[in-house]
């Protein structure tokens, strides 16, 4: 006998024929599927378990397409994928050539945008609904945001515009960090249901027209409105949104299918922008995730019965975190992150020096301006951020740090290829845009020994400084190969170990390559400048895009200084990277040992 989820996978429209009891059964089946797949593939678990009912009800009420759901950030779309014809593919989640862990418009027309960064959904929803309302086709747009998105400035820019635009946009606020008592929640639900009932809304408008015609009617309306608002705010924290011109309803239980259906059906056709505040339990349905949602926000493979990870792999970030923790005992500096305390490995420092650690939420731009203020006041600061999110801070690095010549140290984790998270999370673009900014020094360490030395330099740095490193643990040490060859291979940062292995194998073939591991991105290492002219051919290897990259800087230097050696740049072309493990992606890009050997061999043998 088929499960309800299997029947929906055959035809998503079957969802609309389910009873409320069957919808609850569907929620249980979805949770079971998500837990099983994430335990094998890794992924974002706790947030996806918390949003199951909201997603089911939206698909139950809306007609998708033409109606649209836009998920902010997007890591909470697993239920959405299961309800839109991807159940049979769900076991490929985050795998090479499998389905993405984020919305991906190339997978399905129901994934409106390919996204992975916070704060974008409201603005995008306004844009879509502007056109849909002009077409007058009745298509609805619903935006789903998490409470974490409310720490992001772009969200507030969107809310500000939405309130003045008056577009018919429904925002579901999925709040899994809000404490609500059963009594308060029940009162809020019944009040929200009452306020949103179409019959009541209609009669209220009609009554308003009648009262306005009575002498003194305007004053009566003003008093009644005042009473309504004051009563409403006894149970709902919506004053902020109402002031922006957005109708606020809730909070209601976001894990209660009955409450969600009742309220969303009442508000989905109302005019103007609306926000529905829902309270959900992160990790719902899986006890280990309920008890430790932070740990299960993004997790690798784990044992379902115990919740324990199947393997504990040390990362380069954990090494950096340990350095900061130890250095913090003798050095007075601050550490800042944007909602990535655990991912960056900074939790040890945070516990040991809570007064010197700041997690500012999903507010990357703010974190860097905040850091500039700290340095301006005479203190040192390290800012931790993933490479993909560093893209959002270009102007702050330029305007608030480098232009001011402030020695802020930016620790860029997840540099290079990132396993499992697809095109939105690759750390391959930072070198190119950072090289364009004056005053900044950029380092890409190739070993833990090398990274440790760079971190010590950072403690005394008098210039803006970026240290970029991969998630995967760097080798303990990496030496050069010098045998007076005609050819030189320079391996930058995380790809250096792979490049060295390729060189060793090519040397066994008699090609005679020298190899130099390199950590300087900008400025170019003086050591490299001195030796380039000694070689007939030079190969650069980097785990980053080639346009504007490290190899380009070597090419430019040789051209400007009339150095005649031929140069081969090995790296990533001007492209986006799809989902897969780092090893699989490197192989597909011919950046593994075999691929690098092939390119170098062809280059060196070509007269």
UniProtKB/TrEMBL annotation:
InterPro entries noted in UniProt: Dxylulose-5-P_synthase, THDP-binding, Transketo_C/PFOR_II, Transketolase-like_Pyr-bd, Transketolase_C, Transketolase_CS
Residue ranges constituting the Transketolase-like pyrimidine-binding domain according to the UniProt record: 314-476
Binding-site residues for thiamine diphosphate, renumbered to this chain: 75, 116-118, 148-149, 176, 286, 364
Cofactor: Mg(2+); thiamine diphosphate
Keyword Transport: no
Alphabetized GO MF terms: 1-deoxy-D-xylulose-5-phosphate synthase activity; magnesium ion binding; thiamine pyrophosphate binding
Cofactor details (free text): Binds 1 Mg(2+) ion per subunit.
EC number, as in UniProt: 2.2.1.7
GO cellular component: cytosol
PANTHER family: 1-D-DEOXYXYLULOSE 5-PHOSPHATE SYNTHASE-RELATED, 1-DEOXY-D-XYLULOSE-5-PHOSPHATE SYNTHASE, CHLOROPLASTIC
Subunit structure: Homodimer.
Protein name in the entry: 1-deoxy-D-xylulose-5-phosphate synthase
Species the sequence originates in: candidate division TA06 bacterium ADurb.Bin131
Lineage: Bacteria, Bacteria division TA06
Gene expressing this chain: dxs
């Amino acid at each position: 006998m088929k499960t309800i989820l299997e029947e929906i996978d055959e035809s998503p429209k079957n969802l609309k024929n389910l009873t409320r009891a069957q919808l609850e059964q569907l929620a249980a089946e979805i949770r079971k599927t998500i837990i099983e797949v994430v335990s094998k593939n890794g992924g974002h678990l706790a947030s996806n378990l918390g949003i199951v009912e909201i997603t089911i009800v939206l698909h139950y009420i809306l007609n998708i397409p033409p109606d649209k759901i836009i998920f902010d950030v997007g890591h909470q779309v697993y239920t959405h994928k299961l309800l839109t014809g991807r159940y049979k593919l769900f076991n490929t989640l985050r795998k090479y050539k499998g389905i993405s862990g984020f919305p991906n418009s190339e997978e399905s027309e129901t994934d409106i945008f390919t996204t992975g960064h916070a704060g974008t959904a409201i603005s995008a929803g306004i844009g879509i609904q502007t056109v849909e309302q002009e077409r007058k086709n009745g298509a609805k747009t619903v935006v789903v945001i998490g409470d974490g998105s409310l720490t992001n400035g772009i969200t507030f820019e969107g809310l500000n515009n939405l309130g003045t635009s008056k577009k018919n946009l429904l925002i579901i606020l999925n709040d899994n960090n809000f404490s609500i008592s059963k009594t308060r929640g029940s009162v809020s639900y019944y009040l929200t249901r009452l306020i949103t009932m179409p019959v009541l809304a209609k009669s209220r408008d009609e009554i308003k027209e009648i009262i306005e015609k009575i002498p003194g009617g305007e004053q009566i309306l003003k008093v009644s409105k005042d009473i309504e608002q004051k009563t409403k705010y006894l149970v709902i924290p919506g004053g902020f949104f109402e002031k922006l011109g957005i109708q606020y309803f809730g909070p209601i239980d976001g894990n209660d299918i009955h409450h969600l259906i009742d309220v969303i059906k009442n508000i989905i056709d109302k005019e103007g922008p609306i926000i529905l505040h829902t309270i959900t339990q992160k990790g719902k349905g899986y006890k280990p995730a309920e008890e430790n949602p932070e740990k299960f926000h993004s997790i690798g493979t784990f044992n379902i019965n115990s919740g324990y990870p199947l393997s504990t792999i040390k990362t380069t970030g954990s090494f950096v975190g340990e350095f900061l923790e130890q250095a913090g005992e003798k050095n007075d500096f601050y550490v800042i992150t944007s909602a990535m305390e655990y991912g960056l490995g900074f939790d040890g420092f945070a516990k040991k020096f809570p007064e010197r650690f700041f997690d500012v939420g999903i507010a990357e731009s703010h974190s860097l301006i905040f850091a500039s203020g700290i340095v301006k006041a005479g203190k040192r600061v390290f800012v931790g951020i993933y490479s993909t999110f560093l893209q959002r801070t270009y102007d702050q690095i330029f305007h608030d740090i480098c232009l001011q010549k402030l020695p802020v140290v930016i620790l860029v984790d997840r540099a290079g290829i990132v396993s499992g998270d697809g095109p939105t999370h690759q750390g391959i673009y930072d070198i190119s845009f950072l090289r364009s900014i004056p005053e900044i020094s950029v380092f890409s360490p190739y070993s833990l020994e090398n990274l440790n030395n760079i971190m010590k330099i950072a403690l005394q740095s008098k210039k803006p400084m970026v240290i970029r490193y991969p998630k995967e643990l760097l080798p303990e040490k990496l030496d050069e190969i010098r045998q007076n060859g005609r050819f030189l291979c320079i391996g930058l940062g995380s790809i250096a170990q792979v490049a060295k292995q390729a060189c060793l194998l090519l040397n066994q073939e008699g090609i005679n390559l020298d190899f130099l591991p390199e950590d300087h991105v900008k400025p170019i290492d003086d050591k490299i400048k001195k030796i380039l002219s000694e070689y007939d051919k030079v190969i650069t290897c980097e785990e980053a895009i080639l346009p504007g990259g490290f190899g380009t800087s070597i090419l430019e230097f040789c051209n400007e200084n009339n150095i005649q050696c031929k140069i081969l740049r090995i790296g990533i072309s001007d492209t986006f990277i799809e989902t897969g493990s780092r090893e699989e992606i490197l192989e597909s890009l011919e950046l593994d040992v075999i691929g690098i050997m092939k390119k170098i061999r062809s280059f060196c043998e070509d007269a």
